[in-house]
Amino acid sequence: MGLLPQQLMSAVGGLKVGVAAIEQDEVVMISVTFLVILFSVQKFGTSQVGLAVGPALFIWFCSLAGIGIYNLIKYDASVLRAFNPVHIYLYFKRNSVNAWYALGGCLLCATGSEAMFADLCYFSVRSIQLTFVFLVLPCLLLGYLGQAAYLTGNLNGAEKHPFFLSIPSGIFWPVLLIANIAALIASRAMTTATFSCIKQSSNLGCFPRLKIIHTSKRLMGQIYIPVINWFLLVGCLVLVCSMSSINEIGNAYGIAELGVMMMTTILVTIVMLLIWRLNIIIVLSFVVFFLGLELTFFSSVLWSVTDGSWVILVFAVIMFVIMYIWNYGSKLKYETEVERKLPMDLMREIGCNLGTIRAPGIGLLYNELAKGVPAIFGHFITTLPAIHSMVVFVCIKYVPVPVVPQNERFFFRRVCPKSYHLFRCIARYGYKDVRKENHQAFEQLLIESLEKLIRREAQQRQLESDGDEDADSEEDTSFSRVLIDPNGSVYSLGVPLLAEFRGSSNSISEASISEELNPNSPASPSISDAEHSLERELSFIRQAKESGVVYLLGHGDIRARKDSWFIKKLVINYFYAFLRKNCRRGIANLSVPHSHLIQVGMTYMV
């Protein structure tokens, strides 16, 4: 958040060089206007930004290099001796403590260039690596060397805006325009990167669910999060209006940048140890060099905490607390639901009527568990006087593909024996799928997918001479493995497309042909019984559909027990409850008439 106002105010600050009458207040107001426009157009997507990002930034970096070369030739080319590391030692020897303070400013010379890595949704990794090495780095070096050469002969007041003062007067206004365009592009890229970080955190269960809008059908990384967009706008406006100078914003951004660098080094070290399994000497050498260098710079910027860096520290603490509380509460809730799901032995004991009256109709029970019978279903059957004759446990999953074909939308498995009429359904949606579909079309598609499951089971039973009672009594474990395992087909290939059943379908077709050629085979009587059983179950499903479909929404919640610690009560009963109440629910996009909707809440004491 500190980089956005810093970039804009630095670019807009060039007006003070071109127009002497402009004061700092006018610079702040223009920056505020640019910020409002920038965040207002963010919702229109970034699909076409890639066409403008490359040429604009190329012109900007070439301008930096050209101006730098011009200043080196005109003023003092001897600044090239700065590449000699001996001058670092001499500088510290002459200035001691002041040189240590200056390290923070040296860091800011390199920061900001990493914003180009936020454009990974537009360009490949290799292209960005090559661009950084052969374009960005040389142009930045030439630009800063040119400014140093200019300052050697112009020390009176030039240190405030050395770049804009060093621009030749004939090209000042074009360069100022390019600088502002580049600042807007970089700010937009950082905003997109923030959206991506929030989305990844949400997927990992470390941030409350928010409304995410995908602005591209081809690239999954191009997203827009309205809440975060306006939150960033407010934060940037407060930062720009409350801080009196660009130096304070730079101090705030410097400490944030160093925090990110140190955290990245620590994470890479963990990867080197646990995943790459490199030699411990190599790992220690990496940690000592990079982390030692970063800690040195970090110690330099700590003195500026009172000059603006405290804003970033407060913001970081708030974000950490939100993420920790959400992760802790969500993990505790999920573990409690898994632990208290109804065992299959209990389901067998209460019988196919589930200990209550089975009324005609279909009940779609939405829950977050992909395996087992959720505890909230037990709450339904013990609270309500009747339950539907057929119940489907629906779990919504999002897969990393733009659109899931309609014929592959649902993935069914049977729960308990056939007489229970309980099914498990995974409804899969891509990131560009429209969830607010007509509920009647949704129900029709769901019933058709369920009928396919029934027919497929009947065909499989024809091929099994001995039968398999266990296959009908419990859920197929491979079903849950496909949906939960991150290396499974749903997450690595997008949509499984029922490939696991095609082989069996081919075998079924061959068996059917063989039976037609040999009608007197011993299997013929059992086929007739299976056909009657199939027709009865299909007829049962159609009658249940005609009786009506009701959506049963179960809202599970957690509360700390009375004997829990005070901190746990505070976190669970207040902070996590507040976040859960205001986050986006997984079934927020259901387009269901209120007359077909039943919501039941259940509280777990943890």
Automatic annotation (TrEMBL):
Main location: membrane
Ranges for region Disordered: 459-478
K+ potassium transporter C-terminal domain mapped to chain residues: 360-604
Topological category with respect to the lipid bilayer: Multi-pass membrane protein
Sequence intervals crossing the membrane: 51-73, 99-118, 130-151, 163-186, 223-246, 252-275, 282-303, 309-326
Record's compositionally biased regions (Acidic residues): 465-477
Subcellular location(s) of the protein: Cell membrane; Membrane
GO cellular component terms, semicolon-separated: plant-type vacuole; plasma membrane; vacuolar membrane
Domain K+ potassium transporter integral membrane: 8-346
Keywords noted in UniProt: Ion transport, Membrane, Potassium, Potassium transport, Transmembrane, Transmembrane helix, Transport
Keyword Transmembrane helix: yes
Molecular-function GO terms, alphabetical: potassium ion transmembrane transporter activity
Lineage top rank: taxon: Eukaryota
Family, as annotated: Belongs to the HAK/KUP transporter (TC 2.A.72.3) family.
Task performed by this protein: Potassium transporter.
Name of the molecule in the record: Potassium transporter
